[in-house]
């Protein structure tokens, strides 16, 4: 992943339990190498940590459930490369696992390109009841995603210009709206549902 200085981003993998058994996953931190001012925060299916603990467990994953392993990337003022390596495995069977490697390349910002391509939007009302409106410059084509507090994607749609988003059956709580424009730039905002 390449990010400019002083940015936040998150990325990771989905984990699907396609078996008929509940699975219990653990992780071990294999190595971490960061540059000053940049760091990783790890989230295991909604259990989020400051930094990356040396070991830990995911919440139990029932049959046909999904979870995720995501890393929040925070960049500082120094360019360079950060790397975190985790080993994720099934409890009681450490040989049944996989290595996850997260790279973060911190680069100098290209302010001209950023100014031309960055997503600028607002969301209202906040708190929301039945709908939110994404306010975006006319003719801007984008995709929006709504995530619940556990990081689960609950809405994913395409939009153009201003867009009304029905919140359907979302329960009361905090959500994250992520908007990705056609150049791949992503911006997020939090909103609350209160009914």
How would you sum up this structure, described in words?
- This protein starts with a strand and ends with a strand.
- The strands form four sheets. A five-stranded mixed sheet has the order 1-9-8-3-6, with no helix packed on it. A four-stranded antiparallel sheet has the order 2-7-4-5, with no helix packed on it. A four-stranded antiparallel sheet has the order 13-12-15-16, with no helix packed on it.
- About 4% of the residues have low confidence.
- The protein has two domains: 106 residues, Immunoglobulins (Immunoglobulin-like, Sandwich), CATH 2.60.40.10; 82 residues, Immunoglobulin-like (Sandwich).
- It is built from one helix and 16 strands.
- With 195 residues, the protein is mainly beta.
Could you give me the name of the CATH homologous superfamily of the largest domain? Immunoglobulins
- Number of DSSP-assigned strands: 16
CATH class category of the largest domain:
Mainly Beta
SS strand fraction: over 45%
Low-confidence stretches: 111-117
How many domains, in number, for the residues? 2
User: Averaged pLDDT, please?
Assistant: 83
Q: What's the Cα radius of gyration?
A: 19 Å
Secondary-structure class: mainly beta
Main sheet record: 5 strands, mixed
Major beta sheet, strand line-up: 1-9-8-3-6
Q: Terminal Cα separation, in Å?
A: 38 Å
In DSSP terms (H or I, runs of 4 or more residues), the helix count works out at 1
List the secondary-structure elements in sequence, H or E: EEEEEEEEEHEEEEEEE
Helix fraction by DSSP (H/I, runs of at least 4)? under 10%
Envelope shape: globular
CATH overall fold name of the largest domain: Immunoglobulin-like
**How does CATH name the architecture of the largest domain?**
Sandwich
